[in-house]
Amino acid sequence: MGLLIKNGEIVTASERYVADIYCEDETITRIGTSLDAPPDTKVIDASGKYVFPGFIDPHVHIYLPFMGTYAKDDYTSGSKAALMGGTTTLIEMLCPSKDEDLLEAYALWKSKAEGISACDWTYHMGVPRFDDKAREQLSEIIDDGISSFKFFLAYKGVFNLSDEELYHALCFAKERGVIGTAHCENADLVLELQKKLIAEGKTGPEWHYHSRPPFVEASGTAKFLTFAEATGAAAYIVHLSCNESLREVMRARYAGVRAFVEIVIPYLTVDMSYAELPDFEGAKYVMSPPLRHKRNQDIFWNGLQQGFIHTVATDHAPFDFKGQKEMGRDDFTKIPNGIPSIEERVKLLYSFGVAEGRIDLNTFVNCASTQAAKIFGLYPRKGTIQLGADADLVIYDPNYEGVISQKTHSMNIDYSAFEGWKIKGRPETVTVRGELAVDQGSFVGTHGRGKMVRREPCHY
Ligand code: URP
Ligand code: ZN
Ligand code: ZN
Questions:
Q1: Out of 164, 283, 343, 385, which residue is the most buried by the measure of CB atoms under 10 Å away?
Q2: Which residue ranges form the domains of the chain, and what is each CATH number?
């Protein structure tokens, strides 16, 4: 059955115009005015609404064994929450630990999504070590359609790799047209600062920031980009949180490094004062790198509008307050890191970005969808509205006014970091390859319909 969306204002990263969109066989087959509806077509009137390409979240964790526990969402709740928030494609961080076999980890992570996910997905392949066996196994994974790696400079002894390994892994990435993404905090500095603070009796969530100050991240960013410069590999800085790190990126780009910047929605909306909330409430706002001083936010909005910050992701890493965040009641280093926001990213970006005049509509689409598609080899199948693209579409009602609450969200998590916040606009209807997944704000998607999307290597 075809789908005809009539009279919506189509917004891509570069255009805005009113037209109809006809979708058939999972793709967009016609765009024009006064399109007719063949028999059996579902027709949706989108007058007064925007039609956006399906949003892409380039940094989520769904299956995540981490800090002695597991992230709470699975692909049942996680893909539903993503779709309710207008996100039709997820790029999950596949995070094997140092002692895990990479092919076994790849199979394990895939088994968590296949037959369950209601939205499309792919992975950044975690590389916790690099040797001949890793090279062979990563080759197989690239051939299976994965064209990005994830490196951790942080989380010493668990995920991080040595400088020698990083160098050779990036040479290999360059050779194979794979982009290296990295969590850039200096692992040794974090560990030493944590030990010092705990020894001084500074154990509350507000001290998390002080164990990972901006210079720790800036030095990690400079290091990763130096390795990218030395190897010629393309680099993507995940969850950049502060101006100090951004300056390192600009320096590297000036020197010719192909470097891209991701920020995550918490850094645009909440700041370090939230981690200081009393009664251990601050633990809800512990993530790494930590929430920073509010003054960074203007720089980030400006960076998005001017194009030197490329994507807005979530780094969705959901841990309950009760029983999980509480593991660190007496020691902030044991608070599982993460602020869940897979469902709220697009609404928050629209409400605080577009509706408050900080970014324009094209920039909104660009940083929440198109750039991720381009950087990670999904474009133009995903990330835009054009003939032949996947019919992943979001009909967005800009006049809707709502309130965020744990009581109504779809994420499997016992709190919302944005509880009671007013939002403007919402994804009213969402399609995944031409099939309705959200209808009038209600989930109607099909678990198991999502597909892992194959991505080809890109020589940047
Ligand atoms: O706090 C965070 N970011 N948790 C998830 C793991 C990671 O570093 O991305
Ligand atoms: Zn990270
Ligand atoms: Zn992450």
A1: 343
A2: 55-375 (3.20.20.140)
